[in-house]
Write a structure and sequence with these properties.
The complex is a heterotrimer. Chain A is globular. Chain A is an alpha/beta fold. In chain A, the strands form three sheets. In chain A, strands 1, 2, 3, 6, 11 and 12 form a six-stranded mixed beta sheet that branches. In chain A, strands 8-9-7-10 form a four-stranded mixed beta sheet. Helices cover about 55% and strands about 15% of the residues of chain A. Chain A folds into two domains: about 170 residues, D-Maltodextrin-Binding Protein, domain 2, CATH 3.40.190; about 200 residues, Periplasmic binding protein-like II (D-Maltodextrin-Binding Protein, domain 2, 3-Layer(aba) Sandwich). In chain B, helix 4 crosses helix 10 and helix 5 crosses helix 7. Chain B is flat. By secondary structure, chain C is mainly alpha-helical. Chain C folds into two domains: about 50 residues, no CATH class; about 230 residues, MetI-like (MetI-like fold, Orthogonal Bundle), CATH 1.10.3720. The longest helix of chain C is centred in the N-terminal third of the chain and has 40 residues. The radius of gyration of chain C is 26 Å and the shape is flat. Classes of the chains: A alpha/beta, B mainly alpha, C mainly alpha. Chains in contact: A-B, A-C, B-C. At the B-C interface, helix 1, helix 4, helix 5, helix 6 and helix 7 of B face helix 1, helix 2, helix 4, helix 5 and helix 6 of C. Chain A: Part of a binding-protein-dependent transport system for a sugar.
């Protein structure tokens, strides 16, 4: 009975629906926390306005770990979704295996080459062809601050790590948690990345995490970065283990904690709680990284499909994502900035404006670096090895920074 | 089988009862916490503690979890996932039980050269970590045209459930006297007749054990559900996972717990209603060699 | 027997009878065929395929460029793998031991003609009905220092109470043991209770007449006769121990750091998220090898013992 019904359904789909323009887009993503889900809802609405059906394929949890497993099995079974949240180096891997479709026609029509900064479009292309659509640009090296706490304790917002530790001591003495943190590997890495960028500077940061220079990875600057990173342990609460990032953000919003080092998706949580940038909360570059911009670009990679109507819907999805209207609405909800540099920023908040300014400036002066913690800098294999070393180091009470730096180098080497 | 005389409350019996009651409390605490939390309001959770009763008993969390909590972009609660699970679990349980019964019958009463080895190999299959088979299974299902269908998911559950059902039935049928089978064969009854007329009627307890075990395993499975089901046929465990991870900063523990209770309800009901068959079935043979 | 009609029908036609007889011979094997096919492909075929992959340099998706034993060398040079194996040993041993001890103890108590036995039994058994995802979430909450037990004790006035195993890398694996034992020990109790009910009361009465004390009777006579129950329990528990993936995932995600990592999680994360499929395959082959080393001798001796006894 069942197979027949499936067959009938398949025949029905291909014969009845194909002449019509309406198709179905299935989008696999793990944007399920408040601001993210809202932003994704915008895309769903805009696709439905164009007459297409949106098939939500959310796989929550673990920063996309479960979602990646699902995607791989779907692809292997010959039945991938129309679009999936894939980014950074993984786009190249998927394209190399021949799973991704060519978006050059839409790109030409919509003049993507003109509106996207080259550093962004390079990531989206495989052998010169567009295979993915960038959705937004996140700045990762932010420090989120609750100004009320600082006022109450009577300290200034820190701009270097030395200042940070000084201020954090006073906040801690006042009985407030200095740094809100969630003890998950990627969050540990996000904080470490900020410390490393401050200690190494953009040039050595790139040498270490993009080009994997062993001398830098095990060098004295890295040891210093690890030492400072380990010291941060003293300023987070013992319950951080396993905490989700948005729960940590909530601690800053409520004034239970003073600061959080997190990408600007954290802003979505502030917005969802009706807080206003510059008034209820402040965003400053993470200590010591003023002139740099750690970027994390979210993108949807488009898979090869075998249904005309759905392909059409897929192309419409690609087109819609980069239209200024969507870019504006989506990025306001998600907390990021548009990937198009020509979008009018007037309606964005102060943090986004500052982020856009820094994005443009650092693209000129070389301070723009890819985020290691978010899969922009290196392959997932190397990233995983770095995560293991970092998170183990951070969670071990009396870990030795010098030995860890050597371990870091050999771990990276083993995954190359 | 202890002595018949000890019905009076001697100190040692009081001690026994006390120990048993203490164990009851230990087993009940987590579910007790789940239930009282699911009836609390958000404010109640913040002001009270783990074990405090709700100030006002509220079913809002249950209603929200069932019909309006967000699981990703959609906010329809877990009700849809719940029905998906039923559609998947019922056929999978029935098919794997039926197959297990036939296999157990052959392995216990129609042994042939190599049947013991077959059984051992099948048993070893129980211990295969399921993460290993995700990719090859996905490729196989894709080739069969069953990728991301409920049918495909049912097949997966049958394939990896049949080892246990076979184990249960085999051990049960081993306990049936061979003389009974021999007599029937002398009467001319064949393979099918013996099974249908003699063994099946006496198998009710072990069928209950199998159904309870398989239903629990399949209903509670997350890994296969998340990997082999597509967006609109995902089972309840996936829905629960998405619901718990879809938060707007404040974790709504009451809604999480209500959703967890909804997810657990069918199996709990099965255990409470059919629990005595479970013990009876186990007694009648599943644990014998 | 009620089926004599069938008998007379088949015996009255000798030619067809022989055919039926041959069919009868084949029927049992035919009946096993679907399961055999499924096991061949779904278990051993896929196992073999994983074995092949472990000798390749597969990264993102399977590829067939062979690299010899490289992946195994890498595997044993990986600190996280060693942690995961140690954890499995601790977890597996404690989990199985505690479940057997608690399950057996409760079953013996419950076998003393207890009033309301049915209710108590159901209470002990119900945790198995819950999915490990649910169990993990609840226990994480109970053991979380700022929300659960510790806060409760502080609220009740015992302010020096400290229970931070969940956040302590050295102790976290034991919290998983607690949750897993809570979930599965009731089931073991049921198995033992069923076993106890199968024992002939006359044996015990005879021992009592001889003046043996109750604990002594259980230790010397009852428990040794329950070998098959131990066997079934260990099989089921080992099965659950390996599947505890869900539980660890929901409770700690392997944290803090990777202190509560288990081989199944290691394999999962390297295969699917890290793009090191070859290494993941090697780790799953090692898992199977460990299992083989422990289970096969046990299976062998038990199955053989049954046939002889």
């Amino acid at each position: 009975m069942k197979p027949i019904r499936h067959l009938l359904a398949a025949i029905g789909l291909s014969f009845v629906l194909s002449p019509a323009h309406a198709g179905q887009v299935e989008v696999l993503h793990w944007w399920t926390s408040g601001g993210e889900a809202k932003a994704m809802g915008v895309l769903k609405e805009m696709m439905e306005e164009q007459g297409h059906t949106w098939k939500d394929f959310a796989v929550a949890g673990g920063g996309g770990e479960a979602a990646m497993t699902v995607l791989k099995t779907r692809a292997v079974s010959g039945n991938p979704p129309a679009a999936a949240q894939i980014k950074g180096h993984d786009i190249q891997e998927w394209a190399k295996l021949g799973f991704l479709t060519n978006l050059d026609d839409v790109a030409k029509e919509e003049k993507w080459d003109q509106v996207l900064p080259p550093i962004v479009s390079d990531i989206m292309k495989y052998e010169g062809h567009y295979v993915a659509v960038p959705v937004n640009v996140h700045r990762v090296n932010w420090l989120w601050v609750n100004p009320d706490v600082f006022k109450k304790v009577g300290v200034e917002v820190p701009h270097t790590w030395d200042e940070f530790f000084e201020v954090a001591d006073k906040i801690k003495a006042a009985g407030i948690i200095p740094l809100a943190h969630g003890g998950q590997a990627w969050q540990d890495a996000t904080v470490f990345e900020a410390v490393a960028l401050a200690e190494l500077g953009p040039k050595d940061y790139t040498a270490a995490f993009v080009n994997h220079d062993m001398d830098v990875l095990s060098g004295p600057k890295m040891v210093e970065a690890l030492t400072k990173f380990h010291k941060i342990r003293d300023y987070i609460d013992p319950n951080a283990v396993g905490r989700d990032w948005n729960v940590a953000t909530k601690m800053v919003i409520n004034g239970d904690a003073a600061m959080q080092i997190m990408g600007d998706w954290a802003k979505g949580e502030f917005t969802a709680a009706d807080k206003v940038a510059g008034k209820d909360y402040e965003c400053v570059p993470a200590p010591g990284t003023e002139g740099s911009f750690t970027f994390n670009i979210d993108s949807l990679a488009m898979f090869k499909l075998n249904n005309e109507a759905n392909e059409k819907a897929q192309m419409d999805l690609a087109r819609t994502i980069l239209r200024p209207k969507f870019q504006t609405i989506f990025n306001k909800a998600k907390g990021s900035i548009p990937v198009r540099t020509d979008v009018d920023m007037a309606s964005f908040d102060d943090c986004a404006k500052a982020s856009m300014k820094a994005f443009k400036a650092t693209a000129e002066n070389g301070g723009l670096v890819p985020s290691m913690a978010h899969g922009m800098a290196t392959t997932s294999a190397v990233q995983g090895q770095i995560f293991d070393v970092i998170t183990n180091f951070f969670n071990t009470k009396d870990a030795d920074p010098e030995a860890t730096a050597k371990q870091l180098a050999s771990a990276v080497q083993s995954a190359l | 089988m202890a002595s018949h005389a000890e019905k009076k409350l001697t100190p040692s019996r009081i001690l026994i009862y006390a120990t048993l009651l203490l164990a009851c409390v230990a087993y009940l605490i987590p579910v007790f916490i789940m239930i009282i939390t699911s009836f609390k309001t958000t404010g109640d959770i913040r002001s009270g503690n783990l074990m405090s009763f709700p100030e006002v008993w509220s079913v809002d969390a249950w209603i929200k979890a069932w019909s309006s909590a967000c699981t990703g972009v959609q906010c329809n609660g877990v009700s849809g996932f719940f029905w998906n699970s039923i559609k998947m679990a019922v056929p999978a349980v029935l098919i794997s039980t039926a197959l297990g019964a036939i296999n157990g019958y052959v392995l216990a009463k129609w042994r042939f050269r190599g049947s013991d080895i077959f059984f051992s190999l099948l048993l070893f299959g129980c211990f295969l970590p399921f993460q290993v088979i995700l990719l090859p299974m996905a490729a196989t299902l894709g080739k069969m045209g069953l990728a991301n269908t409920t049918t495909g998911l049912v097949i997966v559950h049958v394939v990896y459930g049949v080892a246990f059902t076979t184990l249960f039935f085999r051990n049960f049928y081993v306990g049936v006297p061979d003389a009974l089978i021999k007599a029937a064969r002398l009467d001319g009854a064949g393979f099918v007749t013996i099974f249908v007329r003699i063994l099946l009627p006496m198998s009710v307890p072990i069928i209950m054990v199998c159904i309870i075990w398989q239903f629990t395993q399949i209903w509670n499975d997350f890994l296969f559900g998340v990997v082999f089901a597509s967006g609109d046929s995902q089972p309840i465990t996936v829905g629960l996972n998405n619901l718990v991870n879809t938060s707007t900063g404040v974790k709504e523990y009451n809604v999480d717990m209500a959703a967890a209770m909804i997810a657990a309800l069918p199996t709990l009901v099965v255990y409470v209603l059919a629990g005595k068959y479970f013990i009876r079935g186990l007694t009648s043979g599943a644990v014998k060699g | 027997m009620a089926h004599s009609g069938v008998v007379s029908e088949t015996t009255s036609q000798p030619a067809r009878g022989r055919l039926t007889q041959r069919l009868q011979q084949w029927l049992p094997k035919l009946a096993l065929a679907p399961t055999a096919a499924m096991a061949l492909v779904g278990i051993y075929g896929f196992m073999f395929w994983t074995g092949v992959l472990s000798f390749t340099g597969s990264t993102f998706l399977p590829s067939y460029e062979f690299v010899g034993f490289d992946q195994y060398v890498r595997l044993f040079g990986n600190a996280r793998w060693l942690t995961a194996c140690t954890n499995l040993a601790i977890f597996g041993f404690l989990f199985i031991f505690c479940c057997l001890a608690i399950g057996c103890f409760l079953a013996i108590l419950l076998d003393q003609r207890i009033r309301n036995e049915g209710v108590i039994r159901t209470i002990y058994l119900y945790p198995l009905a819950l999915s490990m995802i649910v169990t993990g979430t609840v226990w994480q909450w109970i053991l979380n220092p700022s929300l659960g037990l510790e806060k409760l004790m502080h609220d009740w006035g015992w302010t020096s109470f400290q229970f931070d195993w969940l956040t302590n890398p050295n102790m976290v694996i034991y919290t998983i043991v607690i949750a897993a034992v809570w979930q599965a020990s009731g089931f073991v109790m049921a198995l033992f209770l069923a076993g106890l009910r199968g024992i002939d009361p006359a044996i015990i009465n005879a021992a009592r007449v001889d003046g043996a004390s109750l604990p002594r009777i259980y230790l010397r006579i009852v428990l040794p006769s329950m070998r098959p129950v131990f066997f079934s329990s260990v099989m089921v528990l080992a099965h659950i121990a390996i599947k505890s993936f869900d539980l660890v995932m929901a409770m700690t995600s392997g944290g803090p750091g990777y202190a509560s990592d288990l081989p199944a999680m290691f394999m999962y994360s390297f295969t699917f998220t890290r793009g090191q499929m070859g290494l993941g395959a090697a780790s799953s082959i090692m898992m199977l090898a460990m299992l083989l080393a422990i289970l096969v001798p046990y299976l062998y001796s038990e199955l053989r013992g049954q046939r002889n006894g």
